[in-house]
Design goal:
cNMP-bd_dom (chains A, B), 9 helices, Jelly Rolls, homodimer, four-stranded antiparallel β-sheet, alpha+beta, cNMP-bd_dom_sf (chains A, B), 8 strands, DNA-binding
Chain lengths: 200, 200
DNA sequence: CCAAAACGTTAACTTAAGATAAGAATTTTT
DNA sequence: AAAAATTCTTATCTTAAGTTAACGTTTTGG
């Protein structure tokens, strides 16, 4: 797949949030950069400012923390989704999480510098504000559900819930990543799975 | 405190996000409504669409879920902060949480209808998009930290962390609310506190 | 001002999760 | 193809959390 094919996919995905006319699109695309990450390469790292957001054309990434020498998975993003260490990007503070490619991954990047330029360019400003609003709101909704699951559900319930709605993650991720994602250890998840099989 | 005093406070708080000129401010304020909640009155309720966001002039609110007949506190908002069942507001879906006044509370409301009107009013559209973006981004950062705390910290660590940064919540909220907020039961929090006292 | 409700702690018991280690199966790397 | 690393399960032991109930204290509301 070449860059122009990637742009077609990207434009289509963007249109869920904002629709550009041709003049706007030309300027917008001048602020994009293409890149690839080899499997295990880092998109963001602990203690470094993450100065970009990116759209995943193909591939996937894993967000993780290191705590007491242990690798704890917090989230995943797949093709057609966005990736960034958002708080770091938004605040210019060092990232608390690592983000690593799970497989060879093609990205379309918008650097903070380019985003700010677009937000200050009268031709694009309005639509970029709108785009920023809608995408932040989209992820806000995801987070709201995720926090609610930690408050109101047991680890087993969170797993059952993931079973019923999280096909892609379940099929593509090793179980110890999923365990961390659910807020428990891999050993615990294995036991939960055992319990569920026996109860069935 | 009368409405105009409340508006002064509100305008000042808003200016962290967006600054209105006088003409814009006049139109903007026409889209606001003032209201009060008596202690224990609801701002939002389970299964009802929350069709507004509000700024808390004075008072405070508690977000909670009911699960198996039990009341589980998820969050708090205090004066000078915003309150909404955001996902419900943004998506027009029924709210999953109740939001209740903890004390008599004065609010400045923006209904979804008014917000949409402003987003479609050329005089305000740009600044309202910007405002929406910045506020969603602000809460996104809060959520990012909160999710990370559930993934990477034990209940005791979350409590210690709250001790060091959450003065207002700790001083004003009963402990069983705080326990739920941390993702544990009131009995558990009481034991954690006991352990910490003994260890000291 | 009194009765009722709410609050925080403690205890006893049950259940589940964390830590660690071992081992088998699978995958990746060289 | 062999070696190394990863993955998942299982077992043991320890620790902590959930559940329920009781009790004294404080707060609230009529």
């Amino acid at each position: 797949m070449d860059s122009s094919a990637a742009l077609v996919i990207f434009r289509k995905a963007l249109e869920k949030f904002v629709v550009f006319n041709e003049a706007e699109w030309i300027v917008f695309t001048q602020h994009l950069t293409f890149s690839t990450l080899k499997k295990k390469q880092y998109f963001a790292a602990y203690d470094k400012v993450c100065d970009k957001v990116a759209f995943i054309v193909t591939g996937s990434v894993r967000y993780f923390h290191i705590k007491d020498g242990q690798d704890i998975t917090g989230y995943f993003s797949f093709e057609n989704e966005w990736v960034s260490s958002y708080k770091s990007y938004l605040t210019n503070q060092p990232s608390l999480t690592y983000i690593q490619a799970l497989e060879d991954t093609r990205l379309i990047n918008i650097s903070k510098k380019d985003m700010d330029a677009m937000l200050n360019n009268p031709l694009l400003a309005y639509k970029m504000e709108r785009f920023g609003r809608l995408i932040a709101e989209h992820y806000l909704c995801c987070y709201e559900d995720r926090v609610a699951s930690f408050i109101t559900q047991s680890p087993e319930e969170r797993y059952l819930n993931l079973l019923s709605t999280g096909r892609e993650i379940l099929q593509r991720m090793p179980q110890h990543y999923i365990a961390n994602f659910l807020g428990i250890t891999p050993v615990s998840l294995s036991r939960i799975r055992r319990r569920l099989i026996l109860a069935k």
